[in-house]
Here is the input.
Amino acid sequence: MCDLVRLQVQSVDKPLYRGTFHCFQSIVRQESLMGLYKGIGSPMMGLAFINAIVFGVQGNAMRRLGHDTPLNQFLAGSAAGAIQCVICCPMELAKTRMQMQGTGEKKRAARKLYKNSLDCLVRIYRREGFRGINRGMLTTVIRETPAFGFYFLVYDTLTRRLGCEPEDSYMIPKLLFAGGMSGIASWLSTYPVDVIKSRLQADGVGGVNRYSGIADCVRQSWEREGWRVFTRGLVSTLLRAFPVNAATFATVTLFLMYMRDEQGVECEVPPPQALQQQQQQVQTNSL
Here is the structure.
């Protein structure tokens, strides 16, 4: 829901909504409560694959780099962010097109170009080819690469500072806080790029292409709306970022801790301090 509001607010030159809460109210009034869930099929299909790629690549990259340092956390996260763009870009294109269709129209009068997310991608491919379904790929890479670097760096730093020990009765709240703050830091680091990406992917929905490229989109957006254009939809984004990433990081960390304890499976994750100490003890004992 917050993601839909973010897109509606940031992707049009003359917004229909005064802000985040006005957007919520207007969508429910015009399109019913189900209007808040437009385009949900695309992230449901791709999000599991994206998270698998992100945490898998980050863990393998950390093993390759050898030392658990802040710089290596950033580099491993950046590598994961860049690679997952292969799935992320088409998924977000379908989500954007689905969420933009029928914007501002009554439910009965809304014109639907696409039946669902898969139908959206198929139609785009038939009309524009492989390049069409990867529209916005460059801006997605520019956004995701540093964003995921900060994502894992902030989580690693906070878990160390907070002292997330397995015997600590407050370990789960600490993991949730670290995960939520890492999500916020990730979005804040590259949010202006996300605005441009959304505009490029939404461009042409009404049949007219407004922008010729990234630079042209930045120039036109700045000339029409000034610097504030690059903060559009930020409130709804941050409202969504904290709980989503808090749950994601806490779940992954707790699951891998459980796997280590029960089966001795060696899994890399931006670990709490206790996991790092456990690894050091195993290495010392083996010597």
Residues 20 and 259 are 41 Å apart (CA to CA). Confidence is low (pLDDT under 50) at residues 282-287.
